[in-house]
Each structure stands twice: as C-alpha cells, then as structure tokens.
C-alpha cells in the first residue's frame, strides 16, 4: 500500500470508530452516520470516470469533479486484452461502484493508475516513455483515432 492509501485508510478507520462511539453515547448520531455515508457515496461518483475525449495530442478523462489530461507525446498506446488484465488487485480506489479507478496491481505485477468506466470495453494501456511515470488504464473508443 502506498502512503496515500495508508492515510485514507487510517482516516476512515478513525472516522468509523468515532461514529460507533457517538452512536452508543449521544443522541443524533444517526444523522452524523447518515451524512458521512452519504459523503462517501457521493465521493465515488464525483471522481468516477465518465468519459474520455481527445483534444489535439492529449487524452482527457472527465469526471464530475476533475479532468485528467495525458499527452500522447509522453505515452505509447496499446490495446489491452482480458488476459493482460487478469488477476488485477485494487491497491487504492474504487472497484466497481462508480467505475474502476485508482491504483491497481495487474496480474503481471505492474502497478497502474486506472480510469476505467467499463472493465472490459475498449481498454487501453498507456505506457509512459518516462520510466518514472506510472502506466495508465483508460477506456479509449476507436472513434478517438488513437
């Protein structure tokens, strides 16, 4: 697990402990618990990849809250098949609710950033030309001409 995943996990565990304590010791704790659960669900959909577009020599992954850009000059694009994606494990992120986004470890051991709205449709792997960067999984329809 990387540092960000450890921090977020620790915050979630602490928040759950506080909510459990409040639930048994204070009135109105149900409202807090409902609010926190609502915020967690909302966060899944705010950061879920909705669409991919091509703007010149860049690919842009759109979500409700963010827009992530990848320059085609910095990455080699290759179509991924189910065999290369098999055995993937989520390190940090969403695994189905609102897409498959976050950091994943593929069955081959490769650590990737994933921005998938659909697990098997038009999946491409962007391999960075800079070895310090992490590869990226995207849904790239062939209409984008990549």
Query: Number of domains in the coordinates?
Result: 2
**Spatial ordering of strands, largest sheet:** 4-8-9-7-6-5
Quickly count the helices. 3
Low-confidence stretches: none
Radius of gyration: 18 Å
Order of helices and strands: HHEEEEHEEEEE
Estimated structural class? alpha+beta
Largest sheet: 6 strands, mixed
How much β-strand is present in the residues? 25-35%
Helix content: 25-40%
Mean pLDDT: 80
Shape: elongated
Got a strand count?
9
Span between termini: 32 Å
Task: Walk me through the structure.
- With 146 residues, the protein is of the alpha+beta class.
- The chain folds into two domains: 3-46, no CATH class; 49-144, no CATH class.
- 32% of the residues lie in helices and 35% in strands.
- The chain contains three helices and nine strands; from the N terminus they run H-H-E-E-E-E-H-E-E-E-E-E.
- The protein has helices at 3-25, 29-47, 82-85; strands spanning 51-55, 58-62, 67-71, 75-79, 89-96, 99-105, 111-116, 123-128, 136-139.
- Helix 1 runs antiparallel to helix 2.
- The chain is elongated.
